[in-house]
């Protein structure tokens, strides 16, 4: 019996990325006992079930308000904070737009992008491959974080003080650059170290 895996996320709300109880109950009832559900570190659930049922199940989950994304070597949905400063102050609208722009791009290794609506950084953005921290009405962009292994590291500041309209093009350029120049299974932290901050800054700031 062939199984296919896909990712499920609830999308964004004023409380961040939160599954509602009815969505989880529906997920369990739809996928059935033979399916496998895996909790990931990037706020997605991976669902593996029989290939012949995938299309039908995905349709029902989307009708319940859940989002479906590819699993594996793709850029993940935005890992965001809970917008505790309020939707406007924490930049919920920018985070929603950014999420739609970044998710589901094939990349050499899974790419995690973090977002925090203030300097408290409750979503731990500096442990992500690419990170955005909102500072008043501007956005600081970081790269190269890695939470795994004995050589875990914090992301380094790449471009400070981006305006909202500059942020998404800068992040998408970084994703495209990784797609084109990263080695297979190379983590983004290792890629950033190999390429250098200077080169990545040129990519992010390219007109």
TrEMBL record:
Keyword annotations for this protein, in alphabetical order, are: Iron, Iron-sulfur, Metal-binding
Pfam families attached to this UniProt entry: NIR_SIR
Note whether Iron-sulfur occurs among the keywords: yes
Nitrite/sulphite reductase 4Fe-4S domain span: 97-205
Q: Which InterPro entries match?
A: NO2/SO3_Rdtase_4Fe4S_dom (IPR006067), NO2/SO3_Rdtase_4Fe4S_sf (IPR045854)
The protein in question is named Nitrite reductase
